[in-house]
Protein backbone atom coordinates (compact mmCIF):
# COMPACT_ATOMS: atom_id res chain seq x y z
CA UNK A 1 0.00 0.00 0.00
CA UNK A 2 1.29 3.44 -0.96
CA UNK A 3 0.33 6.64 0.86
CA UNK A 4 0.47 9.26 -1.89
CA UNK A 5 -0.10 12.36 0.23
CA UNK A 6 1.29 13.31 3.64
CA UNK A 7 2.75 16.20 5.59
CA UNK A 8 5.41 14.24 7.46
CA UNK A 9 8.27 16.69 6.85
CA UNK A 10 8.56 18.73 10.03
CA UNK A 11 8.51 22.51 10.33
CA UNK A 12 7.90 23.18 6.67
CA UNK A 13 4.11 23.73 6.47
CA UNK A 14 1.06 23.14 8.69
CA UNK A 15 1.97 19.45 9.07
CA UNK A 16 4.44 17.84 11.46
CA UNK A 17 5.86 20.19 14.07
CA UNK A 18 9.15 18.43 14.81
CA UNK A 19 11.23 15.33 14.10
CA UNK A 20 9.53 13.46 16.96
CA UNK A 21 6.09 14.04 15.46
CA UNK A 22 7.34 13.03 12.00
CA UNK A 23 8.64 9.81 13.56
CA UNK A 24 5.29 9.13 15.24
CA UNK A 25 3.51 9.66 11.94
CA UNK A 26 5.84 7.28 10.11
CA UNK A 27 5.59 4.65 12.88
CA UNK A 28 1.82 4.86 12.44
CA UNK A 29 2.19 4.34 8.66
CA UNK A 30 4.24 1.21 9.33
CA UNK A 31 1.51 -0.10 11.69
CA UNK A 32 -1.01 0.61 8.92
CA UNK A 33 0.91 -1.72 6.53
CA UNK A 34 2.03 1.20 4.36
CA UNK A 35 5.14 0.20 2.43
CA UNK A 36 5.73 3.53 0.82
CA UNK A 37 4.80 7.09 1.88
CA UNK A 38 5.12 10.27 -0.19
CA UNK A 39 6.19 13.36 1.76
CA UNK A 40 4.16 16.10 0.06
CA UNK A 41 4.22 19.45 1.92
CA UNK A 42 2.19 22.44 0.70
CA UNK A 43 3.92 24.52 -1.96
CA UNK A 44 2.22 27.84 -2.70
CA UNK A 45 3.79 29.84 -5.50
CA UNK A 46 4.91 33.33 -4.37
CA UNK A 47 3.63 32.67 -0.82
CA UNK A 48 5.06 29.47 0.60
CA UNK A 49 7.71 28.16 -1.73
CA UNK A 50 9.80 25.32 -0.38
CA UNK A 51 13.58 25.45 -0.45
CA UNK A 52 14.53 22.21 -2.22
CA UNK A 53 17.80 21.84 -0.27
CA UNK A 54 16.11 22.18 3.13
CA UNK A 55 13.35 19.81 2.01
CA UNK A 56 15.83 17.13 0.93
CA UNK A 57 17.91 17.45 4.12
CA UNK A 58 14.83 16.66 6.20
CA UNK A 59 13.57 13.98 3.81
CA UNK A 60 16.97 12.26 3.89
CA UNK A 61 17.07 12.35 7.71
CA UNK A 62 13.73 10.52 7.80
CA UNK A 63 14.76 8.12 5.04
CA UNK A 64 17.92 7.19 6.95
CA UNK A 65 16.02 6.61 10.20
CA UNK A 66 13.52 4.28 8.54
CA UNK A 67 15.51 2.80 5.66
CA UNK A 68 14.68 -0.82 6.51
CA UNK A 69 11.08 -0.28 7.53
CA UNK A 70 9.34 1.96 4.99
CA UNK A 71 10.15 3.71 1.75
CA UNK A 72 9.82 7.50 2.04
CA UNK A 73 9.54 9.35 -1.27
CA UNK A 74 9.75 13.00 -2.29
CA UNK A 75 6.89 15.13 -3.58
CA UNK A 76 4.92 18.30 -2.96
CA UNK A 77 1.28 19.37 -2.95
CA UNK A 78 1.33 22.45 -5.15
CA UNK A 79 -1.56 24.89 -4.88
CA UNK A 80 -3.23 25.72 -8.19
CA UNK A 81 -1.67 28.77 -9.83
CA UNK A 82 -1.37 29.90 -13.48
CA UNK A 83 2.43 29.71 -13.14
CA UNK A 84 2.56 25.98 -12.30
CA UNK A 85 3.58 24.97 -15.87
CA UNK A 86 6.38 27.59 -15.80
CA UNK A 87 7.58 26.30 -12.43
CA UNK A 88 7.47 22.70 -13.68
CA UNK A 89 9.47 23.64 -16.77
CA UNK A 90 12.05 25.42 -14.61
CA UNK A 91 12.17 22.45 -12.19
CA UNK A 92 11.13 24.65 -9.27
CA UNK A 93 8.42 22.14 -8.40
CA UNK A 94 8.77 18.38 -8.44
CA UNK A 95 6.58 15.32 -8.85
CA UNK A 96 6.14 12.23 -6.69
CA UNK A 97 9.61 10.65 -6.38
CA UNK A 98 10.79 13.20 -8.97
CA UNK A 99 8.46 11.64 -11.54
CA UNK A 100 6.08 13.25 -14.07
CA UNK A 101 3.23 12.74 -11.55
CA UNK A 102 2.62 16.11 -9.83
CA UNK A 103 0.12 16.49 -6.98
CA UNK A 104 -2.01 19.65 -7.37
CA UNK A 105 -4.34 21.14 -4.77
CA UNK A 106 -7.48 23.13 -5.59
CA UNK A 107 -9.12 25.58 -3.18
CA UNK A 108 -11.71 23.88 -0.94
CA UNK A 109 -14.63 26.04 -2.06
CA UNK A 110 -13.61 27.26 -5.51
CA UNK A 111 -12.57 26.03 -8.93
CA UNK A 112 -10.42 28.74 -10.56
CA UNK A 113 -11.22 29.46 -14.22
CA UNK A 114 -7.62 28.71 -15.25
CA UNK A 115 -7.63 25.19 -13.71
CA UNK A 116 -8.25 23.31 -16.96
CA UNK A 117 -5.62 25.37 -18.83
CA UNK A 118 -3.00 24.69 -16.14
CA UNK A 119 -3.66 20.94 -16.35
CA UNK A 120 -3.60 21.02 -20.16
CA UNK A 121 -0.31 22.94 -20.26
CA UNK A 122 1.27 20.54 -17.79
CA UNK A 123 0.22 17.55 -19.88
CA UNK A 124 1.71 19.21 -22.98
CA UNK A 125 4.98 19.53 -21.02
CA UNK A 126 4.93 15.78 -20.34
CA UNK A 127 3.70 15.99 -16.74
CA UNK A 128 0.85 13.93 -15.32
CA UNK A 129 -1.12 16.13 -12.89
CA UNK A 130 -2.83 14.45 -9.95
CA UNK A 131 -5.80 16.28 -8.39
CA UNK A 132 -5.43 16.14 -4.61
CA UNK A 133 -8.62 15.10 -2.76
CA UNK A 134 -11.23 16.25 -5.37
CA UNK A 135 -13.97 14.80 -3.15
CA UNK A 136 -13.41 17.69 -0.72
CA UNK A 137 -13.86 20.46 -3.31
CA UNK A 138 -17.27 22.15 -3.07
CA UNK A 139 -17.58 22.96 -6.79
CA UNK A 140 -16.72 19.38 -7.80
CA UNK A 141 -19.25 18.08 -5.25
CA UNK A 142 -21.87 20.29 -6.95
CA UNK A 143 -20.79 19.42 -10.49
CA UNK A 144 -18.85 16.18 -10.96
CA UNK A 145 -18.21 17.07 -14.63
CA UNK A 146 -15.55 19.52 -13.46
CA UNK A 147 -13.58 16.50 -12.27
CA UNK A 148 -14.50 14.29 -15.23
CA UNK A 149 -13.24 16.96 -17.67
CA UNK A 150 -9.81 16.99 -16.00
CA UNK A 151 -9.67 13.18 -15.97
CA UNK A 152 -10.66 13.08 -19.65
CA UNK A 153 -7.82 15.49 -20.34
CA UNK A 154 -5.38 12.98 -18.79
CA UNK A 155 -5.22 13.94 -15.12
CA UNK A 156 -5.38 11.45 -12.25
CA UNK A 157 -7.10 11.84 -8.87
CA UNK A 158 -5.99 11.12 -5.29
CA UNK A 159 -8.58 10.59 -2.57
CA UNK A 160 -8.04 11.20 1.14
CA UNK A 161 -8.36 8.10 3.29
CA UNK A 162 -10.34 10.15 5.83
CA UNK A 163 -12.99 10.99 3.24
CA UNK A 164 -13.92 7.29 3.05
CA UNK A 165 -13.96 6.81 6.81
CA UNK A 166 -16.24 9.79 7.50
CA UNK A 167 -13.62 12.17 8.90
CA UNK A 168 -15.05 15.04 6.84
CA UNK A 169 -18.72 14.19 7.35
CA UNK A 170 -21.34 12.04 5.66
CA UNK A 171 -21.77 14.23 2.61
CA UNK A 172 -18.10 13.94 1.68
CA UNK A 173 -18.12 10.21 2.52
CA UNK A 174 -21.06 9.51 0.20
CA UNK A 175 -19.50 11.54 -2.60
CA UNK A 176 -16.16 9.79 -2.06
CA UNK A 177 -17.86 6.39 -2.33
CA UNK A 178 -19.50 7.46 -5.58
CA UNK A 179 -16.12 8.51 -7.04
CA UNK A 180 -14.64 5.13 -6.04
CA UNK A 181 -17.57 3.16 -7.52
CA UNK A 182 -17.24 5.02 -10.84
CA UNK A 183 -13.41 4.66 -11.23
CA UNK A 184 -12.78 8.39 -10.87
CA UNK A 185 -10.00 7.89 -8.30
CA UNK A 186 -6.56 6.37 -8.89
CA UNK A 187 -4.74 6.52 -5.57
CA UNK A 188 -5.30 7.04 -1.85
CA UNK A 189 -3.36 9.32 0.48
CA UNK A 190 -3.65 9.85 4.21
CA UNK A 191 -3.08 13.64 3.95
CA UNK A 192 -1.77 13.10 7.48
CA UNK A 193 -0.82 16.36 9.19
CA UNK A 194 0.06 15.21 12.72
CA UNK A 195 0.00 12.32 15.23
CA UNK A 196 -3.37 13.17 16.79
CA UNK A 197 -6.39 14.49 14.87
CA UNK A 198 -5.15 14.00 11.30
CA UNK A 199 -3.00 10.89 11.38
CA UNK A 200 -1.40 8.88 8.60
CA UNK A 201 -4.14 6.22 8.67
CA UNK A 202 -4.70 4.34 5.42
CA UNK A 203 -5.73 0.73 6.07
CA UNK A 204 -9.45 1.06 6.73
CA UNK A 205 -10.00 3.33 3.70
CA UNK A 206 -7.99 1.04 1.42
CA UNK A 207 -10.07 -1.93 2.53
CA UNK A 208 -13.21 0.12 1.83
CA UNK A 209 -12.02 0.66 -1.77
CA UNK A 210 -11.88 -3.15 -2.10
CA UNK A 211 -15.42 -3.51 -0.78
CA UNK A 212 -16.84 -0.76 -3.01
CA UNK A 213 -15.02 -1.57 -6.23
CA UNK A 214 -12.97 -4.77 -6.61
CA UNK A 215 -11.76 -3.85 -10.11
CA UNK A 216 -10.42 -0.50 -8.94
CA UNK A 217 -8.77 -2.09 -5.90
CA UNK A 218 -7.04 -4.58 -8.20
CA UNK A 219 -6.03 -1.76 -10.55
CA UNK A 220 -4.50 0.16 -7.63
CA UNK A 221 -2.61 -2.95 -6.51
CA UNK A 222 -1.14 -3.35 -9.99
CA UNK A 223 -0.58 0.27 -11.00
CA UNK A 224 0.17 2.56 -8.08
CA UNK A 225 3.73 1.23 -7.80
CA UNK A 226 4.22 2.19 -11.46
CA UNK A 227 3.35 5.80 -10.63
CA UNK A 228 6.14 6.12 -8.08
CA UNK A 229 8.52 4.52 -10.61
CA UNK A 230 7.50 7.10 -13.25
CA UNK A 231 6.01 4.46 -15.53
CA UNK A 232 3.05 5.25 -17.79
CA UNK A 233 -0.30 3.86 -16.68
CA UNK A 234 -3.72 3.39 -18.25
CA UNK A 235 -6.58 4.26 -15.90
CA UNK A 236 -9.77 2.22 -15.80
CA UNK A 237 -12.64 3.64 -17.84
CA UNK A 238 -15.13 5.76 -15.90
CA UNK A 239 -18.35 3.78 -15.39
CA UNK A 240 -21.90 4.63 -14.44
CA UNK A 241 -22.82 4.52 -10.78
CA UNK A 242 -24.57 1.17 -10.24
CA UNK A 243 -25.60 2.24 -6.75
CA UNK A 244 -27.69 5.06 -8.24
CA UNK A 245 -29.44 2.59 -10.56
CA UNK A 246 -30.05 0.31 -7.60
CA UNK A 247 -31.64 3.17 -5.65
CA UNK A 248 -33.94 4.11 -8.54
CA UNK A 249 -34.95 0.43 -8.83
CA UNK A 250 -35.71 0.35 -5.12
CA UNK A 251 -37.87 3.44 -5.44
CA UNK A 252 -39.70 1.88 -8.39
CA UNK A 253 -40.29 -1.35 -6.48
CA UNK A 254 -41.57 0.55 -3.48
CA UNK A 255 -44.14 2.38 -5.63
CA UNK A 256 -45.58 -0.86 -7.04
FE1 LIG B 1 -2.36 17.92 1.99
UniProtKB/TrEMBL annotation:
<keyword id="KW-0904">Protein phosphatase</keyword>
<dbReference type="InterPro" id="IPR016667">
    <property type="entry name" value="Caps_polysacc_synth_CpsB/CapC"/>
</dbReference>
<comment type="similarity">
    <text>Belongs to the metallo-dependent hydrolases superfamily. CpsB/CapC family.</text>
</comment>
<dbReference type="InterPro" id="IPR016195">
    <property type="entry name" value="Pol/histidinol_Pase-like"/>
</dbReference>
<dbReference type="GO" id="GO:0004725">
    <property type="term" value="F:protein tyrosine phosphatase activity"/>
</dbReference>
<keyword id="KW-0378">Hydrolase</keyword>
<protein>
    <recommendedName>
        <fullName>protein-tyrosine-phosphatase</fullName>
        <ecNumber>3.1.3.48</ecNumber>
    </recommendedName>
</protein>
<dbReference type="Pfam" id="PF19567">
    <property type="entry name" value="CpsB_CapC"/>
</dbReference>
<dbReference type="GO" id="GO:0030145">
    <property type="term" value="F:manganese ion binding"/>
</dbReference>
Amino acid sequence: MIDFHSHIIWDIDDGSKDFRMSSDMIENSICQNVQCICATPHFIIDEQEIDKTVYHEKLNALKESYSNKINILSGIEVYINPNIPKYYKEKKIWGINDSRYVLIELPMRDYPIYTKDVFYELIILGAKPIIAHPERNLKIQQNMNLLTDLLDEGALAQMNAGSLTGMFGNHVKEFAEKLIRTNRIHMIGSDGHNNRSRKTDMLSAYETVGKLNKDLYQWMEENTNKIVKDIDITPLKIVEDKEKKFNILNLFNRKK
